[in-house]
Specification:
The protein is α/β, with parallel strands linked by helices. It has 10 helices and 8 strands. Strand 2, helix 1 and strand 3 form a beta-alpha-beta unit. The longest helix is centred in the N-terminal third of the chain and has 15 residues. 41% of the residues are buried.
Length: 241
């Protein structure tokens, strides 16, 4: 079973984090599958917009600690830092708008994937949690996405408290586009995508390019800001999510 499922929907595509037995937790193959899928999407001129969701009614529970702590360790473990950077670079460089359907939860590394979306729909009782501070570790990729899209005050509120932020509150903070009732998040996100995909060819891509014109840093430069700060602030360096 592929960790990331690609479902073609004509002029748009659905990406599904597909590890339902592990609450779609992140491992090396999921990171590789997501970056590979985004690369294929980026090279297809017919695709206008992307919907990202998790399988079986949940978005992503963060790192799969069972696999990260396995004995013997998985073959990808030593490469995970590079894998995760490649995944976020692919999200950063994606020219097509990304809509996120957040059901139930997006936690830590899963929150970083949700925050990478251009538009997020989240269930009223679903939550996003950047909880690394509660584990004594940093959250550089979450911070990088928050500071790309939101104010320092918003980033501080999410990352310093480490608490759960639910649908309506995420809308009020400007992090989420809408908070549909539970059970209708994917349907509402799909309806939004199907509305937007009817706009003239590449109009969405042009608007996203204009939004991005207000910063001129490469993906590596942007993410290096956060990872360098993490390294300076803690000793020894910890795993980043």
């Amino acid at each position: 079973m592929a960790e990331v499922e690609i479902v073609m929907r004509g002029r748009w595509v659905e990406l599904v984090l597909n590890r339902p037995d592990r609450r779609n937790a992140i491992n090396g193959p999921l990171g590789l599958g997501l970056s590979d899928a985004l690369g294929k999407i980026e090279s297809d001129p017919e695709i206008q917009i992307v919907l990202l969701r998790g399988a079986d009614g949940a978005f992503c529970s963060g790192l799969d600690l069972k696999e990260f702590n396995a004995d013997p360790p998985p073959e990808w473990l030593g490469r995970f830092g590079d894998i995760w950077r490649t995944t976020h670079k692919a999200l950063f460089q994606l020219k097509k708008p990304l809509v996120v359907a957040l059901e139930r939860f997006a936690i830590n590394g899963g929150a970083a994937l949700a925050l990478a979306g251009d538009l997020m729909l989240v269930g009223r009782e679903s939550f996003l949690q950047v909880g690394e501070v509660r584990q004594g570790s940093a959250a550089p990729y979450n911070m990088a996405w928050l500071r790309l899209r939101h104010s320092a005050a918003t980033a501080a509120r999410l990352t310093l408290t480490g608490r759960r932020f639910y649908g309506a509150e995420l809308v009020r903070m400007g992090i989420a586009h809408a908070a549909p009732k539970e059970g209708s998040v994917v349907a509402e996100a799909t309806a939004l995508v199907e509305e937007l995909v009817e706009y003239p060819d590449h109009a969405l891509e042009r608007i996203k390019a204009t939004i991005g014109a207000y910063h001129d840093e490469s993906a590596d430069d942007w993410f290096d800001r956060a990872t360098r700060a993490t390294t300076r602030a803690q000793s020894p360096p910890r795993a980043v999510t």
